[in-house]
Amino acid sequence: MSTIHIDLLGTETRFHDTGKHRTRCIEAGSGPALFAFHGGGGHAETYARNMTRLATRNRVIAPDFIWHGMSSKPAFQSGNWLKQFTGQILDLMDHLGIEKASFEGESLGGWIVMDLGIHHPDRVEKLILNTAWGMNLGSDKAEDLSALRETSLNALRNPSRELIRKRLEWLMPLGGVTEELIDLRVKLWSDAATRESLTGYYERLFAPECEHFLYKLDDLARIKAPTLLLWTEKNPIAGPEAAFAMHEVIQNSVVHIVKDAAHWPQWERPEEHDRVVLDFLAK
What we know:
- Strand 1 and strand 2 form a beta hairpin.
- It contains twelve helices and eight strands.
- It is globular.
- The chain starts with a helix and ends with a helix.
- The protein is an alpha/beta fold.
- The protein has helices at 4-7, 51-54, 83-96, 108-119, 142-157, 161-171, 179-189, 192-205, 217-220, 240-249, 265-268, 270-282; strands at 12-17, 22-28, 33-37, 59-63, 101-106, 124-130, 227-232, 253-258.
- 41% of the residues lie in helices and 17% in strands.
- It has a single domain (4-141, 213-282), classed as Alpha/Beta hydrolase fold, catalytic domain (Rossmann fold, 3-Layer(aba) Sandwich).
- InterPro entries: AB_hydrolase_1 (IPR000073), AB_hydrolase_fold (IPR029058), AB_hydrolase_sf (IPR050266), Epox_hydrolase-like (IPR000639).
- This is Alpha/beta fold hydrolase.
């Protein structure tokens, strides 16, 4: 079986200090820029199985978001604190001299990709919404969101292998959680500063006022960039019906449904994910 270390051979890990944020990135390739955003609680290795294949045609940059992984942990701002993620990415792009890029976002990462597409279209080439979260389409399953909150906060309070495994199996209930991935998450979540910042993240994410920051269909209709809605049959937050509802309002969009996958299709079905993404970017 392949390992994260083997999968990432040929990539580079870099820390970019822009003066505002210190962002850890895994990077590979050259050509058009493609940013790959992980989900809530995640880290750049979310795309370990995809980096080198995607880098055959692109300059791929997978960052740790602020409050996550090994990136900086700034104070949370009042109001729509999620905008701080977008600010981090725009700041990083300026630091790297990247005027426009394509963006893939999984779960939380998709929320930030939508924000870029809606509010910063001048920085966007193409968008890939990978089992995205951050929409109010009336299809979210409250019981699954409660399970996500419970498993996340429990694992942060006590980052044991058992609780980290349970959290990762929420992402991939069909299988795919490896011992190495558990080891990595245990290491990252055992850092006191990371535990504190991620606890703050989840408390704010599930607070009632966060409902006001979700995008509705009218908001998504403002996205003009070519958009791939890469979804799965078994996504635990919102099923394929969410992708098709978004497709109805995002004019220049296409849908691809990955079978036998849940919330991490780039990890669960990497070959299919990479083929679909590369074909979309090449069009």
